[in-house]
């Protein structure tokens, strides 16, 4: 194992860094750690109240131990996640991490939720750099592109802005993300080589393996694959999903059954979920996970570096055989649900 380009003597714990696996992110020059930090939990938006001091301590510890990629978005807490990350990283050497954020999705409700236009994208990069306290962003992503009326709107608007930003050095790479995989595929084809990475979330988890069908295409197009939400946005944890979770009730029941079995055996379903995602035999650069608490960092690192203990493996196998086998193709995802809700909400704005 060799040290990654993000290694900084005096900051990193060299022995821990040597244990971590690094993979090239598509055709970019980023060598990213196999597990990375998702910024969705670094704000008070969706997953409960954040303990900032613990989050700061956890993120810095994660970086010291060789995790080198942090992925956030303006949308997470209306810029709050970016601001928190900016504060956390204030005294961390810039060389030690790659920072990724997103544009196009801004607010939770109302007419300003999405803007796929060029001007808004050029403006939002400046806002993000200010909040993150950096003078360039390693990866800038088109966020949740399925909410655009059609993908061409994104390609002719926000993507054009991203190409300009890349030429000017404000961003180093361009990414696309969203939930429906077919939309991401269409976006990558229409962008004609301008997209460097694709972030998919909750598409290779204990209850959904849809990503497998699309990986050969992503690899052929040489886009780096970022696999996010390996815990299914809280669905596959002992705490269970947040109230807003879009999964169907039957899927939530199956996940709840798995979490009860884990709890009664004193095992973390979240660790099994992380282990399962990382077992994917295909070309994925990094697995993005929420790590706002030290116990989550330890669980995720343990799943990544050591795998499962004998008792965890026993429960994992039992769940795969008797619980997750109940998930049918109709149940496994919640595609279309949120877009439809957004379209319905949009109709009400024009009435006023």
Automatic annotation (TrEMBL):
<dbReference type="Pfam" id="PF00248">
    <property type="entry name" value="Aldo_ket_red"/>
</dbReference>
<protein>
    <recommendedName>
        <fullName>NADP-dependent oxidoreductase domain-containing protein</fullName>
    </recommendedName>
</protein>
<dbReference type="InterPro" id="IPR036812">
    <property type="entry name" value="NAD(P)_OxRdtase_dom_sf"/>
</dbReference>
<dbReference type="InterPro" id="IPR044479">
    <property type="entry name" value="LGALDH-like"/>
</dbReference>
<dbReference type="InterPro" id="IPR023210">
    <property type="entry name" value="NADP_OxRdtase_dom"/>
</dbReference>
<feature type="domain" description="NADP-dependent oxidoreductase">
    <location>
        <begin position="35"/>
        <end position="319"/>
    </location>
</feature>
<dbReference type="GO" id="GO:0005829">
    <property type="term" value="C:cytosol"/>
</dbReference>
<dbReference type="InterPro" id="IPR020471">
    <property type="entry name" value="AKR"/>
</dbReference>
<dbReference type="GO" id="GO:0010349">
    <property type="term" value="F:L-galactose dehydrogenase activity"/>
</dbReference>
């Amino acid at each position: 194992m060799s040290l990654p380009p993000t290694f900084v003597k005096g900051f990193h714990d060299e022995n821990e860094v040597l244990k971590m696996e690094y993979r090239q992110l598509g055709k970019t020059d980023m060598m990213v750690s196999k597990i990375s930090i998702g910024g969705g939990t670094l704000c008070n938006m969706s997953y409960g109240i954040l303990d900032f001091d613990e989050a700061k301590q956890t993120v810095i510890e994660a970086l010291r131990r060789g995790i080198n990629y942090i992925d956030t978005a303006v949308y997470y807490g209306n810029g709050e996640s970016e601001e928190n990350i900016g504060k956390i990283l204030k005294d961390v050497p810039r060389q030690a991490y790659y920072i990724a954020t997103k544009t196009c999705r801004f607010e939770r409700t109302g007419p300003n939720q999405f803007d796929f236009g060029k001007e808004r994208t050029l403006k939002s990069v400046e806002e993000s750099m200010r909040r993150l306290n950096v003078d360039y962003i390693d990866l800038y992503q088109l966020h949740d592109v399925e909410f655009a009326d059609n993908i061409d709107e994104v390609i002719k608007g926000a993507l054009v802005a991203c190409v300009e930003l890349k030429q000017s050095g404000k961003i180093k790479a361009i990414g696309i993300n969203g939930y429906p995989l077919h939309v991401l595929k269409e976006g990558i084809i229409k962008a004609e080589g301008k997209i460097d990475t694709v972030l998919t979330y909750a598409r290779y988890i204990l209850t959904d393996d849809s990503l497998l069908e699309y990986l050969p295409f992503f690899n052929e197009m040489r886009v780096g694959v970022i696999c996010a939400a390996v815990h299914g946005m809280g669905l596959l944890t002992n705490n269970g999903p947040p109230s807003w979770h879009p999964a169907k009730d039957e899927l939530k029941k199956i996940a709840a059954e798995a979490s009860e079995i884990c709890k009664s055996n004193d095992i973390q379903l979240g660790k099994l979920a992380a282990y399962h995602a990382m077992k994917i035999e295909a070309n994925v650069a990094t697995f993005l996970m929420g790590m706002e608490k030290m116990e989550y960092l330890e669980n995720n690192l343990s799943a990544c570096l050591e795998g499962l203990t004998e008792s965890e493996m026993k429960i994992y196998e039992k769940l795969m055989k008797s619980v997750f086998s109940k998930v049918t193709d109709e149940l496994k995802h919640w595609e279309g649900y949120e877009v439809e809700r957004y379209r319905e909400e949009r109709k009400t704005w024009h009435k006023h």
